[in-house]
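ok trying this again, last paste got cut off
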Amino acid sequence: MVCTTIRQGSECPFMTSNGCSYNGGVCHEIVEQCNGCNRSAEFSSRWYCTACPEPSLKWKTGDCNIASHVVKSSSASNTKINPLKASKRGNR
């Protein structure tokens, strides 16, 4: 449904016919770590996340999994490769 509280005019999965069903009934502003993300948008002169109603919960345990500005480093180069298994894979 279309949001009628803070993000007016945009689709919201928490909107019901009785109003916002999210905890507290309103979306929370973005946190400092969200600056630079493509999913942040300005509504009524404040910045909100378009994908998550409470961005601070996404950053609580580390990096946000939907953040577009965070580059994840791969640890594949640090793993040790068994040369015997690598030679067998090469023969396939």
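PB: full thing came through this time. The chain has one domain: 15-90.
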